[in-house]
TrEMBL record:
Keyword Hydrolase tagged: yes
Protein family membership: Belongs to the ABC transporter superfamily.
Keyword annotations: ATP-binding, Hydrolase, Nucleotide-binding, Transport
A molecular-function term among this protein's GO annotations: ATP hydrolysis activity
Record-given protein name: Teichoic acids export ATP-binding protein TagH
Organism listed in the record: Aurantimicrobium photophilum
PANTHER family: TEICHOIC ACIDS EXPORT ATP-BINDING PROTEIN TAGH (PTHR46743:SF2)
Family matches, as InterPro entries: AAA+_ATPase, ABC_transporter-like_ATP-bd, ABC_transporter-like_CS, ABC_transpr_TagH-like, Bact_Polysacc_Export_ATP-bd, P-loop_NTPase
PROSITE patterns reported for this sequence: ABC_TRANSPORTER_1, ABC_TRANSPORTER_2
Domain ABC transporter: 24-247
Length: 247
């Protein structure tokens, strides 16, 4: 790892089971690695290596199911690789799986405090930002509403607003901009641009070429669980379009 890298992924691999019945048994916990059963396992990612430097904006492209979200979860430390390593030496604000970080039965207000608190913000720091977070999400009238009663668009607004208010150097965004309406999307674009101007590092999964070209200078192209290409975003999109014309 070079000293300036903020993310270093070295020969990382992760495998999943295709069905729940195939889950490892309790007995497997006590078996040696070689003797464990491996029903229906497959490698969602394998032999993935790259480094990211502070301030880079990286777009992750690939067809459905090729490991993009899995890669972001590895960087967010939500998943641990089965092979190789993923080192992230900065705080990460993850906007991945929208409903992930929020608690259904807590109110909007409590969820904001909880999520920001989990990322190290004090109550005072959250209080100072609270009105801005709610105003950006445009959910002033729902502060005491349980999170589960928000519409799906409102959930996205809240998640985007909270996560981009965290003072973490690395921002992970997985396919959320497609969900909001047009005016909200434009606000999100401006906020991402502000964050990039501040020198933060962006990891961006999207199926929108326009969004990828707008924010990202570098691309990672995942195909069949491998990192097929790591290069300038234009070259990565060209390669992807060539492999899968008309998508
Ligand atoms: N927790 C899990 N358990 C089992 N399989 C999983 C799990 N998470 C992901 N997978 C599988 O791993 C593969 C990669 O999934 P992933 O969500 O990373 O793809 P993706 O490239 O983000 O796809 P999309 O563009 O559809 O969002 C898929 O085959 C998916 O079914």
């Amino acid at each position: 790892m070079t000293s300036s890298a903020v993310i270093t992924v070295t020969d990382a691999g992760i495998r999943f089971r295709r069905n729940h019945k195939g889950r490892r048994s309790f007995k497997d916990l006590f078996s040696t690695k070689a003797r464990r059963s491996k029903p229906n396992e497959f490698w969602a990612l394998q032999h993935v290596s790259f480094e990211v430097h502070p301030g880079e904006a990286i777009g992750v492209v690939g067809r459905n199911g090729q490991g993009k979200s899995t890669l972001l979860k590895l960087v967010a430390n939500v998943l641990i690789p089965d092979e190789g390593s993923v080192n992230v030496n900065a705080g990460v604000a993850p906007l991945i799986e929208i409903t992930g970080g929020f608690v259904d039965d807590l109110t909007v207000r409590d969820n904001v405090y909880l999520t920001a608190g989990l990322h190290g913000m004090t109550r005072e720091q959250v209080a100072a930002k609270f009105d801005d977070i709610i105003e950006f999400a445009e959910i002033e009238d729902f502060l005491d509403t349980p999170y589960k009663h928000l519409s799906s668009g409102m959930k996205v607004r809240l998640a985007f607003s909270v996560v981009t208010s965290l003072e973490e150097p690395v921002l992970l965004v997985d396919e959320v901009l497609a969900v909001g309406d047009k005016s909200f999307r434009n606000k999100c674009y401006r906020r991402i641009e502000e964050m990039l101007a501040e020198g933060r590092t962006l990891f961006f999964v999207s199926h929108s070429e326009g969004d990828l070209r707008r924010f990202c200078s570098r691309g990672l192209y995942l195909d069949k669980g491998s990192l097929k290409l790591d290069g300038p975003i234009e070259a990565v999109l060209d390669a992807y379009n060539e492999d899968y014309p008309g998508l």
